[in-house]
Design goal:
The chain is built from 17 helices and no strands. It is mainly α. Helix 1 packs across helix 3. Bound molecules: ligand 3E9 and magnesium ion (MG) (5 copies). The site of one magnesium ion (MG) has 3 residues, from helix 4.
Length: 367
């Protein structure tokens, strides 16, 4: 029996917010899960208590109502895949077969006309989500969403290979995997759709914008690793004894105790949160209105994930409560770059943005 980890209040420079229709959105996500029969009956009964629609309402506090609903239903669907197929199911220990199943789902997302998986609840749910994404998004955003789904699927197969081998990836590989298998990148197109703008390709490709989006993903995923640690350790019975989060990675590869690993993970996420804020400030000063909206949306995604993470029964597990913070902190535990080779370029980008007074984002050509 391990000693319970007490997760401290983490640094939150972004204020909380929630969509005024959050209660309806949450109720409709529950109805959607039942209508499409997502997950086994047991998994579905758990998922519909976890306020996943409320989570969507926190991510998009001022988003278009219909798109917030798409996001709520989609996140529930993602948990149907992540919990049901990857973490609790037999496929999670057979990466090749998991990949085959996920590629079939991807085919449905890309070609909803295809006559496959007609009776499969996850495929039917995905067809519905695909139709709604195409209704509220542009063709470019629909493609971006499908491409992000492919990235997510690729990363969960990578994770399944570690589960199968009962291995723990090193921190740098874990980071690369986690920035996709946390499914944050599949949410990004919905931020745009919910506010009726579309980033220009040259804006999306800017190093600062890529770094800001990835930094947001990092904070969201590290926070999840802190807040879900108790659940993940506790659920080992359901997940065949395997779990993977940054605390386990730091314990395993650096020989840290769980308390030391927790402190190190908090320090990493605080450093990236500070970086995220600085990137947003530097980019926002010169960016287009849609770019400023995107940065604002990323901030709501980060803060909404924190507020949902400390309050959903998914993580609080009231029958055996997790020691989660009841509030957040206004100061970071540390600042400065995080020593993970794959991501140190984020700080180089910030230095360039801060150091280049004449820096200008590309503007649309004037006719
Ligand atoms: C997260 O990792 C798995 C995703 C499928 C969660 C779906 C949520 C989002 C798309 C928004 C991002 C929010 C996060 C990362 C919660 P993991 O560790 O399997 O999630 P768990 O809830 O089991 O800790
Ligand atoms: Mg997972
Ligand atoms: Mg999980
Ligand atoms: Mg459309
Ligand atoms: Mg987790
Ligand atoms: Mg706002």
């Amino acid at each position: 029996m391990s000693i319970a980890l007490v997760v401290p209040p983490t640094y939150a420079p972004i204020p909380p917010a929630i969509h005024p229709r959050h209660a309806d959105i949450d109720a409709q996500t529950t109805a959607w899960a039942h209508a499409f029969g997502i997950g086994s009956a047991g998994l579905r009964e758990r998922l519909v208590t976890q306020q996943i629609g409320t989570f969507a309402a926190r991510i998009l506090p001022s988003g278009r109502r219909e798109v917030v609903q798409v996001l709520g239903d989609f996140v529930l669907w993602l948990f149907g895949v992540d919990d049901g197929l990857c973490e609790e199911g037999a496929l999670g220990r057979t990466p090749g077969a998991l990949n085959a199943s996920l590629q079939r789902l991807l085919w449905v997302a890309e070609h909803p006309e295809a006559d496959i998986l007609a009776g499969d609840p996850l495929a039917r749910g995905l067809r519905d989500l695909r139709a709604r994404v195409a209704e509220y998004g542009t063709a470019g955003q629909t493609k971006a969403w499908i491409d992000a789904l492919r990235e997510y699927f690729l990363s969960v197969v990578w994770e399944a290979s570690h589960r199968t081998a009962d291995s723990v990836p090193e921190l740098d590989d874990y980071t690369l995997m986690r920035l996709y298998d946390g499914a944050t990148t599949v949410v990004l197109p919905m931020l745009e759709m919910a506010h009726g703008y579309e980033l220009r390709p040259e804006e999306r490709a800017l190093p600062g914008i890529r770094a800001a989006a990835q930094a947001a993903s990092f904070v969201i995923c590290w926070d999840n690793d802190l807040f879900s640690y108790h659940k993940e350790v506790k659920e080992r019975g359901r997940t065949g004894g395997y779990y993977l989060n940054v605390i386990r990675v730091l314990e395993h590869h650096r020989g840290l105790s769980s308390h030391q690993a927790l402190a190190e993970a908090v320090s990493q996420r605080d450093r990236v949160m500070v970086l995220f804020q600085r990137l947003c400030r530097a980019l926002g000063e010169q960016g287009s209105p849609q770019l400023r909206q995107y940065l604002d949306d990323l901030g709501h995604f980060v803060r909404g994930s924190m507020d949902w993470g400390i309050s959903s029964v998914r993580y609080t597990t009231p029958d055996d409560p997790a020691a989660l913070p009841a509030r957040f902190s206004s100061t970071p535990t540390s600042t400065g770059p995080v020593d993970i080779p794959s991501i140190t370029w984020w700080w180089d980008v910030l230095d360039r943005l801060d150091g280049t007074a004449a820096h200008r984002l590309p503007q649309p050509a004037t006719p």
